[in-house]
Amino acid sequence: MPLKTRDEYLDGLRRLGHRVFIQGEAVEDVVDHPVSRPAVLAMAETYQGAAESETKALFTTTSHLTGAPINRFAHIQHGTGDLVQKILMLREMGRRTASCFQRCAGLDCLNTLYAVTFEIDRRHATEYHARFVAYLRQIQEGDLIPAACMTDPKGDRSLSPAEQRDRDQYLRVVERRADGIVVRGAKLHITGAINSHELLVVPTRALREDEKDYAVAFAVPATARGVTFVHGRQPSDTRRLESGRADVGNVYFGGCEALVVFDDVFVPEKRVFMCGESDMAGRLVECFAAHHRASYGGCKVGVGDVLIGATAAVAEAQGIDKAAHVRDKLAEMVHLNETMHGVALASALKGTPTASGAYEVDPLLANVCKLNVTRLPFEIARLAQDIAGGILVTMPSLADRDHRQVGEYVKKYFAGKDDGASDLRMRLVRLIENITLGPGAASYLTESVHGAGSPQAQKIMIGRLADLGPKKACALRLCGAR
Amino acid sequence: MPLKTRDEYLDGLRRLGHRVFIQGEAVEDVVDHPVSRPAVLAMAETYQGAAESETKALFTTTSHLTGAPINRFAHIQHGTGDLVQKILMLREMGRRTASCFQRCAGLDCLNTLYAVTFEIDRRHATEYHARFVAYLRQIQEGDLIPAACMTDPKGDRSLSPAEQRDRDQYLRVVERRADGIVVRGAKLHITGAINSHELLVVPTRALREDEKDYAVAFAVPATARGVTFVHGRQPSDTRRLESGRADVGNVYFGGCEALVVFDDVFVPEKRVFMCGESDMAGRLVECFAAHHRASYGGCKVGVGDVLIGATAAVAEAQGIDKAAHVRDKLAEMVHLNETMHGVALASALKGTPTASGAYEVDPLLANVCKLNVTRLPFEIARLAQDIAGGILVTMPSLADRDHRQVGEYVKKYFAGKDDGASDLRMRLVRLIENITLGPGAASYLTESVHGAGSPQAQKIMIGRLADLGPKKACALRLCGAR
Amino acid sequence: MPLKTRDEYLDGLRRLGHRVFIQGEAVEDVVDHPVSRPAVLAMAETYQGAAESETKALFTTTSHLTGAPINRFAHIQHGTGDLVQKILMLREMGRRTASCFQRCAGLDCLNTLYAVTFEIDRRHATEYHARFVAYLRQIQEGDLIPAACMTDPKGDRSLSPAEQRDRDQYLRVVERRADGIVVRGAKLHITGAINSHELLVVPTRALREDEKDYAVAFAVPATARGVTFVHGRQPSDTRRLESGRADVGNVYFGGCEALVVFDDVFVPEKRVFMCGESDMAGRLVECFAAHHRASYGGCKVGVGDVLIGATAAVAEAQGIDKAAHVRDKLAEMVHLNETMHGVALASALKGTPTASGAYEVDPLLANVCKLNVTRLPFEIARLAQDIAGGILVTMPSLADRDHRQVGEYVKKYFAGKDDGASDLRMRLVRLIENITLGPGAASYLTESVHGAGSPQAQKIMIGRLADLGPKKACALRLCGAR
Amino acid sequence: MPLKTRDEYLDGLRRLGHRVFIQGEAVEDVVDHPVSRPAVLAMAETYQGAAESETKALFTTTSHLTGAPINRFAHIQHGTGDLVQKILMLREMGRRTASCFQRCAGLDCLNTLYAVTFEIDRRHATEYHARFVAYLRQIQEGDLIPAACMTDPKGDRSLSPAEQRDRDQYLRVVERRADGIVVRGAKLHITGAINSHELLVVPTRALREDEKDYAVAFAVPATARGVTFVHGRQPSDTRRLESGRADVGNVYFGGCEALVVFDDVFVPEKRVFMCGESDMAGRLVECFAAHHRASYGGCKVGVGDVLIGATAAVAEAQGIDKAAHVRDKLAEMVHLNETMHGVALASALKGTPTASGAYEVDPLLANVCKLNVTRLPFEIARLAQDIAGGILVTMPSLADRDHRQVGEYVKKYFAGKDDGASDLRMRLVRLIENITLGPGAASYLTESVHGAGSPQAQKIMIGRLADLGPKKACALRLCGAR
Fold this sequence. Notes:
homotetramer, 482 residues, alpha+beta, four-stranded mixed sheet, 15 helices, 14 strands, 48% helix, globular
């Protein structure tokens, strides 16, 4: 049964039984809770895309392990074509949901562990790769979602893991047993945490020789004893509680992140994929970072498509779509959006095989892609706000449109170009608000800065990967110094 | 009694009795309603500033009409020093409230009408100026707040007022009586509308000869028959309804805008300041725009101060304040913030007297100031988010900190650099969220784009004021063509 | 003999006998004239690259016409791999020469005419494609260089070709004979004009029905009767006349453009590839533009590599290479440089076949690539100047280093980090001057703005290719309007 | 005789007799040497401005020492009005010359030494201020120009002065005599060095306790024994040698910098203004930096005016001045230009008195002004090139216009909108080339980056002056933490 349906996913999630808190309340069913439901539905679209005829070819592929059809979100990429298809699938998901749909971090983590467990084994004569392949087969066959858990709380960031006063500020092994290990710590802003089946945990940074306890990678089910999820807040999140819910802007979808606490969680040996090989933590992080930084040139570009579309539509509704400066700004938005996408595609095109046979993207271009993503959506959002107008933050509630006493006023004075168009115009404006100032902005803006590592992380990697030597050699030759 | 106290303002507002709707509900008392209260409190700070010893000199001055001490928010500026002091007062208000405090549009409108009624009289032999001076005296003596009402709904923006299908899309005179006029229409995104005493209404654009009905300026009390206020939504506005309210970020203050409907409102003759002089509408708009565009180099810079302060404090709480890239980004934020302020001050320094004796700012520099304000806060906000980190949009509720089951986890894993500092750190992060993605962003970002006219309006004015002739003459001489 | 050597090219060019003027002087031998020699040498590197073992695979390929090995600069691309290889070859040429090497416009024009003559034939039942294939075979077999001649003088740019007072402001057919046509007009800023064997002339814009005379494409040899070349000036061009020539910065290479006048030039029928099909001029221009705009993400990126290398080397020579801000700026330069390259590669990756079988790049991404090229090199240049320091424009001549009276002063005070390093440092600084303010800047900056069409041309194309419909549909669905 | 005429200045300079080398040649008369003449003429305009009736009020003022009329370029500013007038005068000079006119660094240095010698005396009980006042009186009475000499070669920039292998890399006292001191070292990129009467030498950085030898400030005449000037190169400098000289673009003016070598130069005691007070070097540098960084918001803005004027004029000549994107770009250029100016004016407006009574500008705003100057001219230049078109770097020589064989071609095909307008258009294009890629760019671009300190110096000062404490306090209060 490799391909699960959207409804099977939703039903399974309802019965999952993991320990979730949302704004101080224990939540039984994350599917129907109004705050988490949009994130669940966004994730569910990854199943839906695999089922619909127009997108099936993009969302499914063949397992290199079993030869069976699988969801591409569980696929180990084995060529630059695979890397390209992933980017295109992520853009399509962004267009469908205008949200973080949360399944790509797990995908990128699967690909990372596939490559890196192989490399650890070669260097340390361990057996992680076979374990991981067995685990991967389980994921593919069950069409399961593993949430990638990477970022630690970090405590005092000027100190390394072993230097922290509270040593739990980085997740670590606190006990080694014959049949497995016990881990303690927490992972922050875990995307899709509360609506995934599995947690796939990896280190968050390069580690020193004396930090072996922190060099740990493993998987546990979301229901593992000792695991607690605390859902994070997003701008305007409580609009989801309003009846009607139209003011939420994006009426179906959203993203979510959570704090995931590991309070002395036992991990059986077969689910441990790294344990003590601190020399390989840096490699693992960089491999994941490259994959995931390229991903942002897919998903955020898809969200950008929606934002551009909403902005173009609202320009029409206001009668300004022919104005030269509006056309110029729309073209600029497209320009910036495609710039991110182009570099992501290039990172895939220049992908190379790892020792395991799995492909990884060109790390320099992947970092360049992501550094653009930390900047350009802010400019796109600014231009969207420019065109949408001040009503973005001054418009009454959509509910007011039907109000006995003021409904007629609202309809009349928010009609825009066409009488009777107030509903369309107001909804579009709310969608733009969602993406630029609301729950969508959590994903489109802030996550674009910090997801897959902050700008400074990309700057450092670009500096390291820049290969200045040959560039200097060219310069020395041309100026006659050599 | 020219100087009202903060409490007198609040008490008076409670009893005002105007017709206000907030999210589909008729509201009796805007002071205690949790959604509107922050805006009321921000406005109230303009009275408080005039009362406190350290700020009294900045917030008060002497009426040129009566010689009595008045709040500077009701003062007609009579020198470049006055213009400069206004900018400095607005910055101080921004620092106090990190919000739109709503009283400057009225101030700028008073100054505009003072100058322009004088000029209309000179051209049309009318008597508006004397009427307006009488009105102004009332405002100064009562220490009252008039909300400036300028922006019309505009309907199809590719059409001028007279071309609209629904002629009410621009507010207009629908009846002329012996004792006054009757007006119909609406004004959009009126800042401080629901917590002002008066409405000061002016046209929104230059008008043609055949658009005399739209060339109307007047004042009515907020309680005038036929006037209805519909409060606008802002990002995360409903967090104000939560008990505790800590997640709102800015625990005291906020801004507000409203739709103000004029459903056949009668205006007595003595409160009419322009009626039919369509040739002067453009001058009025440009005069107001210059004053108000310069204002943005005060208020938004003050909000920027708070955002920079919050970002610097959160950097310390996370142990990253010594990192070179963090210091560089903080310096960049200061640089951008002061750039806006510097140009605003320069527009005041180069201010000139109008025929009425009141001063107006240099219009070119005022427009340059505002065009920078439509851009630079977005970059400052991006840098703030960069330094604050992903927790900006993934952090649990502050209420979770005290939760029986998860409180300890939250305290432990959001402590940052110091054990026990989680409360401080989380509050700072919520404040940054407020200013960059929450209700504060409505003011700091979107209003920075659209308030006092959209970027394109500034571009057009800069093009018109650029005085290219002498520049071309310099060029022709230097290249030897002349 | 499809592969010519560098020396064969130089020898042939010496004897070519075309009519060339450089700064008011008729020039017999463009190879040895100090002003034109660097451009000749840069072009010659396209032959050299095909001969050297390390680059042969990149610079040569197999003719799809003859199966013989040819220079890739004469190849019709028949797959996305071909498109990608072209971009990589152009980057390599940029690294070798830090100049415009002038052969890519001809290449892009060959590919355009191959595709478009096929399409004209299909629509107009003409026979241009076969003629063009015969011509192409000649180019490939002779390893000849055709200079693409596109841009007309345009006269009053607010008027279309047929509206000009001087109808010659756009090149046109002035006579149709049995055996061919006679053309009159001029082409501006023709890259590599004076050191190419052939001129390949095409229209510069979409044309109206009544502008058939302007719808003309053809080839003539550089020696055709009536053809005159007037070489253009570049910043610091006369430094090439100085003995020593070290102050030129780039000691070997440069670019060149020329005015090419067609004073009633006869073109035999077999060399006419379009004549009167005004409906196809727009298609031809857009096809060329897409190819050529993508090219800029190769060549300018290669020049950027040299500039980055020179900057890194000079930072070392000054002892500032470890400073955090210098490392950050170098990483930023790499980031911007790779952004351009990534989008170019993506335009190749998403290339599609034309009806002729030849491939063309994705036009949206090609335009996005070029629009970035009109901006980012200016920022890279600014950062290079920032790191290089003020000596860029205040440093004495390199010749002063050996001067009897002041040589020791210069050596001592420009040594930088290491005694005796003044020569290296001064040469590097001159190279940076060359690329950012000298002859190299003509190519790296100004040509980056205008080559292959000005920014506004890209903006218009991006607006046209943006495909807003599906984007709007996504938005309407997500906001609940559909 | 406090006010010298332009001609008196030129005559005096011819007879000065200092030791100058230009490109390896000893030069007797810098007034008539074609390379240095434009710089001399630009400097001479500071005298001319004081003589012309329209500008006399701006260029002259009253000496606070003698009460006599003096050139404002020798004035000690004693109020914010003086600070403002200086900025306005510099802008006017920029408009007159489109060049660095070289006299402001000396002016800023005079004001600095006036303030700082007073402060040194107070701390160290020295007598520098009286000496300096005597010197200043001489400058004012003779209407003399002192060139400020600040920047040392610096050798290995990762090392402080005392750590350098070659200790002469920072200018220092090598001998202390009864009647004065002997100094050795060099100063780099000294603006106006070869055409000033005096050299005013100051340290280039804060110094440590053990670096007293470097803490030296003094004045010597340009003719002092041991002083040698080596003129620096600029882009396209040798176009000045061409007959006709039209291709130089700016037909009259230019700037210049030089290496000034002090080879054991004796300074009599009365001309020593600091000697050993290393604790005050930092204060001196910061005071000068603030004055001079504000100056850039005058002079470069004036050059920007000319560039904008040339661009607007060439747009007309090409028939594109009505195009929406051209108008938008011109408005953007004005916007950026006025942004720099506004912040400079604000730094003057917020100026404060030093202990000496002389005023200094607000240092935060002065640094913000300069940091903008390191960026915005590059964007203005890019936009100018965008509008001017590719002919900027492909156009034949202006001399070709009159050439017997090709003159008619050039006239016809560079006519632009109007027949016969080719001369005007070509000259304008050459002027734009001059300012963005030629000798003018040395001043408008590179010097904008590095003059008065590099961007990083401004970043550091902004960080230091940012006053984060009160900003943090605002934030803590508003988020409820205090």
